[in-house]
Amino acid sequence: MTAAGAFAPPEVAISVEGLSKKFGDRLVVDNLTMSVRRGQIYGFLGPNGSGKTTTIRMLCGLLTPDAGHGTCLGLDIRTQSREIRKHVGYMTQKFSLYTDLSVRENLEFVARLYGVPRPEDAAQQALVRLGLEGRGRQLAGELSGGWKQRLALGACILPAPQLLLLDEPTAGVDPQARREFWAQIHDLAAEGLTVLVSTHYMDEAERCHEIAYIAYGHLLARGTVAEVVAGSGLVTYVVDVARDGRDPGAVIAALSKALSGNPAVKMVAPFGISLHVSGHDADALEAAIAPFRAQEGLSWRRETATLEDVFIDLMMRSQDMLR
Amino acid sequence: MSAPPDIAGFFRRVAAMVRKEFIQLRRDRVTFATMIAIPLLQLILFGYAINTTPRHLPTAVLVHENTAASRAILAALKNTAFFSLTHEPADDAEAEHLIRGGDVLFLVEIPAGFERALRRGETPQLLVAADATDPVASGNALGALSGVVSSALARERFVDAAGTAPFEIVQHRRYNPAGTSQLNIVPGLLGTILTMTMLIFTALSVTRETERGTMESLLSMPIHPVEIMLGKIIPYVLVGVMQGVLILGAGMILFSVPLEGSLLLLSAGTLLFITANLATGYTFSTLAQNQLQAVQMTFMYFLPNILLSGFMFPFAGMPVWAQWISECLPLTHYLRMVRGILLKNAGFADLQSDIAILAVLMLVSMGIAVARFRQTLD
Ligand SMILES: Nc1ncnc2c1ncn2[C@@H]1O[C@H](COP(=O)(O)OP(=O)(O)O)[C@@H](O)[C@H]1O
Ligand SMILES: [Mg+2]
Question: N or C end: fewer C-beta atoms under 10 angstroms in chain B?
Answer without folding.
Answer: N
